[in-house]
């Protein structure tokens, strides 16, 4: 199978120079493995999150959303098993004390940090939950955790959501937001960080139907990845074996991606059974059972959980979109190569860029108001610096699907040149017809 030809070095450099994602706290020397989304990355991420929400929540009758607190009652994490079992095995270099994940290294080899072969400590389990203290005292009574996954809020809020929404099984509760894990080995840009963004839902079903819904959501996840522009040849569907799965799961498929740094997890699909709801019923005393309206059977629903890392979605969307091509036309540029992000139009940070051919006032008075008009409907950039070829290249690099050039002929024919990012084809369109033209070309 083919690994995407783009390297991480190229992608990280582009992300940084164009303001998609750059190192956090940079003026203080940065903070290891902390990344900030810049103006374009923020738009891309929001577009992904909004498209996901529209697809999986707003457009469906069987899904509702919540937005829960990051710091929950610590009893939640005790009941869920995270305080006890949310661990990675860790070994430590006996010389430099650097810590590594035992399951991701060969302890017979030299230490990757100091290079010595003094060896490593025996593996011990390291809990990934971020501990904090609530209030002014730092004692065991004030210990709390930053959420390690979104799912628990969907479980503990279930009774209130049911009362408020009057949904019936099968139905789901969705959420998007930040999660925190004290990862032993973060790295590979935004692939593994200690705070990251997740979108996931818990889909509640009768246990007799879990297999049907598992297959259904697997297909829906594939379809979402098609929408994000991911080539299916870059995906591997990895059935996780007994003994390897998370403590709550009876069946898990990891959707893995062929990143430039290897085949690794992108998303997960888990059958969480009734594990979580039963644990919360037991520990809190709340009744989490449904009553079947036809048979009056009272039962604890089972759960199918599709989970999507947002930062990994940003990463693979950029990897898939990144292309280097020969630049064919002389008038288009001074370089012989163009870098183009062929992002799905719906996800591109800017949909349109308005480019007056020169900085002269007579073009600006047409181009400025035109950009203002277009941006009421589509995210629109405006750029009047440098040659038109260089500006096309810049818009290609940030994935803008359409450039609109206002030139001196515009002043007489009331038309502009629309250039397509992917084909570089140019079309003359009357200004009055421009909004209709884009309504045909651009999603919603
Ligand atoms: N509720 C289930 C759950 O949280 P998970 O496999 O532990 O499952 C879900 O995590 C997804 O979160 C992963 O498939 C991945 O996309 C993303 N993810 C997990 N750890 C991450 C990290 N340290 N940095 C960035 N994304 C991460």
Q: Largest sheet, described in full?
A: 7 strands, mixed
Name the assembly state: single chain
**Low-pLDDT regions:** none
Shape assignment: globular
Overall mean pLDDT score?
94
Number of domains: 2
Structural class: alpha+beta
Question: And the CATH topology of the largest domain?
Answer: BirA Bifunctional Protein, domain 2
Q: What percentage of residues falls in helices of 4 or more residues?
A: 25-40%
For this structure, what is the CATH class of the largest domain? Alpha Beta
Task: Provide the list of bound ligands, each named once.
Answer: glycyl-adenosine-5'-phosphate
**In whole angstroms, how far apart are the ends?**
35 Å
**Discrete helix count:** 13
CATH homologous superfamily heading of the largest domain: Bira Bifunctional Protein, Domain 2
How would you characterize this protein structure?
This protein is α+β, with helices and mostly antiparallel strands and 444 residues long. The chain has two domains: 2-71 and 145-318, Bira Bifunctional Protein, Domain 2 (BirA Bifunctional Protein, domain 2); 328-441, Rossmann fold. It is 30% helix and 28% strand. The strands form seven sheets. It has a seven-stranded mixed beta sheet with strand order 3-9-10-16-13-12-11, sandwiched between helices. A hairpin with a 6-residue loop joins strand 4 and strand 5 (99-101). Helix 3 (74-80) packs across helix 8. The chain is globular. The protein starts with 7 loop residues before the first helix and ends with a helix.
């Amino acid at each position: 199978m083919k690994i995407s030809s783009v390297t991480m070095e190229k992608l990280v450099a582009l992300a940084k120079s164009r303001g998609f994602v750059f190192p956090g706290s940079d003026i203080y020397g940065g903070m290891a493995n902390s990344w900030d989304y810049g103006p374009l990355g923020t738009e891309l991420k929001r577009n992904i999150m909004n498209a996901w929400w529209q697809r999986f929540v707003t457009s469906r009758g069987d899904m509702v959303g919540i937005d829960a607190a990051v710091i929950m009652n610590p009893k939640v994490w005790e009941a869920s098993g995270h305080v006890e079992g949310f661990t990675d095995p860790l070994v430590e270099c006996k010389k430099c004390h650097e810590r590594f994940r035992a399951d991701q290294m060969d302890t017979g080899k030299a230490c990757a940090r100091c290079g010595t072969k003094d060896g490593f400590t025996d593996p011990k389990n390291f809990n990934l939950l971020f501990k904090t203290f609530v209030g002014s005292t730092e004692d065991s009574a004030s210990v709390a955790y930053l959420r390690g996954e979104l799912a628990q809020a969907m479980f503990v809020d279930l009774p209130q959501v049911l009362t408020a929404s009057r949904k019936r099984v099968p139905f789901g509760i969705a959420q998007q937001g930040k999660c925190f894990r004290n990862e032993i080995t973060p790295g590979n840009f935004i692939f593994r960080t200690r705070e990251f963004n997740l979108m996931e839902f818990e889909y509640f079903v009768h246990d007799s139907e879990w297999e049907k819904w598992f297959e259904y959501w697997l297909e829906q996840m594939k379809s979402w990845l098609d929408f994000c522009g991911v080539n299916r040849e870059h995906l591997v569907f990895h059935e996780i074996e007994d003994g390897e799965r998370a403590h709550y799961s009876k069946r898990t498929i990891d959707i893995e991606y062929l990143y430039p740094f290897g085949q690794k997890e992108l998303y997960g699909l888990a059958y969480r059974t009734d594990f979580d709801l039963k644990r919360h019923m037991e520990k809190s005393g709340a009744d989490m059972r449904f009553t079947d309206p036809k048979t009056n059977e009272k039962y604890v629903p089972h759960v199918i959980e599709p989970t999507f890392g947002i930062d990994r979605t940003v990463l693979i969307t950029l990897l898939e979109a990144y292309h280097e091509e020969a630049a064919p036309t002389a008038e288009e540029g001074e370089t012989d190569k163009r870098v183009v992000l062929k992002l799905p139009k719906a996800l591109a940070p800017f949909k349109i860029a308005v480019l007056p051919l020169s900085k002269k006032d007579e073009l600006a008075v047409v181009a400025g108001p035109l950009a203002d008009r277009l941006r009421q409907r589509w995210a629109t950039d405006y750029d009047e610096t440098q040659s038109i070829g260089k500006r096309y290249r810049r818009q290609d690099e940030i994935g803008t699907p359409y450039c609109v050039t206002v030139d001196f002929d515009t002043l007489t024919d009331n038309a502009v040149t629309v250039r397509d990012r992917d084909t570089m084809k140019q079309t003359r369109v009357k200004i009055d017809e421009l909004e209709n033209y884009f309504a045909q070309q651009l999603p919603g």
